[in-house]
Amino acid sequence: MKGKILVVGGAGYIGSHFAHFIQGKGWSPVILDNLLLGHKKAAGEIPLVVGDVGDESVLDRLFSGGEFGAVAHFAAFAKVGESMADPAMYYQNNVCQGLTLLKAMARHKVEKLIFSSTCAVYGEPEKIPIAEDNPKAPINPYGASKLFFERMAMDMAAVSCIRPVFLRYFNAAGADPEGALGEDHDPESHIIPIVLQSALGLRGPVSIFGQDYPTKDGSCVRDYIHVTDLAEAHLLALDYLEQGGAPDAFNLGNGMGHSVLEVLDAARRVTGINIEAVAAPRRPGDPATLIGSSEKAMRVLGWKPKYHEIETIIKTAWDWMKAHPEGYGD
Predict the structure, then answer these.
(1) How far lies 113's CA from each of 49, 73, 266, in Å?
(2) What percent of the chain has pLDDT over 70?
(3) Disulfide: which of 22, 87, 180, 275 matches 141 by Cβ 3.0-4.6 Å?
(4) Could you tell me the pTM of the whole model?
(5) Do residues 90 and 26 touch, judged by C-beta distance below 8 A?
(6) Closest by alpha carbon to 149, among 100, 86, 79?
(7) Contact partners, residue 168, CB within 8 Å, separation at least 6
(8) What is the pairing mode between strands 221-222 and 258-259?
(9) Annotated catalytic residue, options 91, 142, 240, 307
């Protein structure tokens, strides 16, 4: 039976798009966010509890009424380079705080869990596009911490009511097509908003980290998925659990990759601005090519992404950024 869902990290980029997407679709979202990386304005009219996912007292207070039927977890740190520089911070937030959430769910018999995971759990993949049966061999603490949470959740599922679904993807991109929500990080680390900030004159030339990868043009290749398509996938995963689905993992991808230089060229076409770029050294922990296969998600969940074209994805981000050059401003 659908009802309230706790959206942990729901004032952040992907979490806020999901929280707004599921309204009117049988779920009543409540956001838990410490606002360290999230934005109060991104929550909008959705109830917002300012608190930490690692605070047992906050979780006990929320879950004690027995009203929550599910949790969607978006509160992990997610920067590869940062995880390489400060792995302890990533294990503390993504693993230790995640364990606190799992224990609280088990105590209060909150069954359904959707976890925003990552294809970084695979490391340097053996096959492209990446399917779920690829070996799990993360090459950075970010991917390792996400995989550790997955394993904890599965171990908890064996001895409690928790039924998790792990959605593994790369490079969420774009913005709400209606213009209400967008991407606002400080500092920004994602390539599309960085390129668009450069187009607006909010930063200097775009740095291309590595030009000697074994790819078609020497720059990294990634799979870019529109944030609204990701929000729909999370809702379909909830429906899957509602129908009695067993714990499982699904990769989410467009099945096609775009290099950094291709993204830059697409942004130039969308904006009509000759965005300047400069060469920079490789960043540690960056694989050459990461493209996810969504065959299983399409077959089992019925997911079908609607925003395939990189220009379309960039245009939604560009429209939001032009209207919000200073982000949410909070």
Answers:
(1) 19, 7, 36
(2) 100
(3) 87
(4) 0.95
(5) no
(6) 100
(7) 117, 118, 119, 121, 122, 132, 249, 250, 251, 252, 292
(8) antiparallel
(9) 142
Per the structure block, which two tokens stand in for 208?
Answer: 């291309």
Q: For residue 317, what is the enclosing H or E element?
A: helix 310-323
- CATH topology for 4-173+223-252 is Rossmann fold (3.40.50)
pLDDT tier at 165, thresholds 50, 70, 90: very high
169 is catalytic: no
Q: What is the CATH number of domain 191-222+255-323?
A: 3.90.25.10
For the record, the structure tokens of 201 come out as 């004159």
Give the type of residue at 302: G
Torsion of CA 263, 265, 271, 273, to 10 degrees: 130
The helix (H) or strand (E) run that includes residue 313 is helix 310-323
Identify the residue whose tokens are 């917002």.
Answer: 48
The size of the chain, in residues, is 330
